[in-house]
């Protein structure tokens, strides 16, 4: 990396860093408006703990907005380089825009990999302890009435509910089982249940039928195709899993298609984050790094804001589509990064060949 690369990387990193800090401050301010959570944390550990958890939650949301903040910060840095004519001097010395891009792209890839494989995991683990995400879906409900899961017994669907949950869903208590389409099984009540390979092991069982006395059993097994990783994902959310935990969960043969799609989309999004950040950087160069006769950049900054919002909305829409199974998780995660890189490279090529 030569002096030009160091100059560009330092200037862009500084402006992107300031932009990220501004967004972090705004998000932290919004997070602090949750008065109940702030008061609860104050009771648990005082003001330092409340501020720390609020900051961790803000960092999590800040990572989600990185495509927008990188784009805006890069535009601000490039506008400053244009205003001082430093970028013009670099180009006049015979350095092409592709050579100029080498250092910033390499730095962005390193930063993206560090966030995906390091920072994101640390933030998720901390946030999972103090501010876990409770999912809302069609196959699981966690609320004031306990846990309810939709399961399958060799093709016969049933609902299993529990008032108490422990060990990430491996152990449940005060269990109720209802077969949805077969009333002959009756209503099954159990004191405890344990998830074992291939089924739920229930103890202290009572079987209630409308046409027969209550049947008591010491223990009973009900088949299920769910794994511990699948149950754990239903209890929380893929957002509360690190990249490595998601990889292990997907390797455990998750049977529920909706849970598998959500976990795979989340995993692929983490892999695609460095490419998405590079795409945002390319878009910033494409619309800002060209030669200008004047120092008027109001329209350029406005275009950057609009493009940043488009990238963010596109990413979130693809995430929802992939998590719901409408799109392939790989396409939903990699698609926005591919589109951003394609737009940036296309505009750069169009401008650099002299037509614009």
Detailed description of the structure:
- The protein is of the alpha+beta class.
- The protein contains 10 helices and 7 strands.
- A 7-stranded antiparallel beta sheet has the order 1-2-3-4-5-6-7, with helices on one face.
- A hairpin with a 7-residue loop joins strand 4 (171-179) and strand 5.
- Helix 1 (3-31) runs antiparallel to helix 2 (35-64) and helix 5 runs antiparallel to helix 8 (257-288).
- It is elongated, with a radius of gyration of 26 Å.
Write the layout of secondary structure elements.
Layout: H1 3-31, H2 35-64, H3 66-83, H4 86-92, H5 97-130, E1 140-143, E2 146-153, E3 156-166, E4 171-179, E5 187-196, E6 199-209, E7 212-223, H6 228-235, H7 243-250, H8 257-288, H9 298-323, H10 329-352
Antiparallel strand pairs: 1-2, 2-3, 3-4, 4-5, 5-6, 6-7
Helix pairs in contact: 1-2, 1-3, 1-5, 2-5, 3-8, 3-9, 5-8, 7-8, 8-9, 8-10, 9-10
Distance between the termini: 30 Å
Order of helices and strands: HHHHHEEEEEEEHHHHH
Number of domains: 2
- Strand arrangement, largest sheet? 1-2-3-4-5-6-7
Mean pLDDT, all residues: 81
Share of helix among residues? 55-70%
State which percent range the strand residues make up. 15-25%
Q: How many whole angstroms does the radius of gyration measure?
A: 26 Å
Shape: elongated
Low-confidence region ranges: 134-144
Which structural class fits the helix and strand makeup?
alpha+beta
- Give the tally of β-strands: 7
What is the count of helical runs?
Answer: 10
């Amino acid at each position: 990396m030569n002096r030009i690369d160091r100059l560009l990387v330092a200037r862009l990193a500084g402006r992107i860093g300031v932009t990220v800090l501004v967004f972090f401050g705004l998000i932290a301010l919004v997070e602090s408006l949750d008065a109940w959570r702030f008061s609860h944390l104050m009771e648990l550990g005082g003001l330092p703990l409340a501020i720390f958890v609020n900051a961790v939650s803000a960092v999590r949301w800040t990572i989600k907005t990185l495509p927008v903040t990188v784009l805006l910060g890069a535009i601000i840095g490039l506008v400053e380089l244009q205003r001082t004519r430093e970028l013009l001097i670099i180009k006049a010395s015979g350095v092409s825009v592709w050579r100029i891009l080498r250092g910033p792209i390499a730095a962005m890839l390193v930063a993206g990999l560090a966030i995906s494989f390091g920072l994101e995991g640390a933030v998720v683990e901390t946030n999972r302890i103090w501010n876990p995400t409770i999912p809302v879906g069609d196959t699981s409900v966690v609320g004031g009435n306990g846990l309810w899961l939709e399961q399958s017994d060799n093709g016969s669907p049933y609902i299993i509910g529990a008032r108490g949950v422990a060990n990430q869903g491996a152990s449940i208590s005060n269990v109720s089982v209802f077969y949805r389409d077969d009333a002959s099984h009756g209503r099954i009540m159990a004191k405890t249940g344990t998830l074992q390979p291939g089924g739920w092991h229930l103890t202290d069982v009572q079987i209630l039928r409308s046409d027969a006395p209550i049947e008591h059993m010491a223990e009973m097994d009900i088949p299920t195709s769910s794994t511990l990783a699948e149950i754990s994902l239903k209890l929380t959310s893929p957002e509360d899993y690190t990249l490595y935990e998601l990889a292990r969960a997907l390797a455990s043969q998750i049977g529920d298609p909706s849970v598998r799609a959500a976990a795979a989309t989340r995993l692929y999004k983490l892999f695609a984050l460095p490419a998405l950040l590079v795409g945002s950087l390319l878009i910033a160069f494409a619309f800002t790094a060209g030669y200008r006769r004047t120092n008027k950049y109001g329209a350029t900054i406005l275009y950057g804001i609009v493009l940043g919002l488009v990238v963010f909305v596109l990413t979130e829409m693809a995430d929802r589509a992939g998590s719901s199974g409408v799109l392939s998780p790989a396409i939903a995660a990699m698609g926005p990064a591919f589109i951003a890189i394609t737009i940036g490279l296309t505009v750069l090529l169009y401008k650099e060949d002299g037509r614009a």
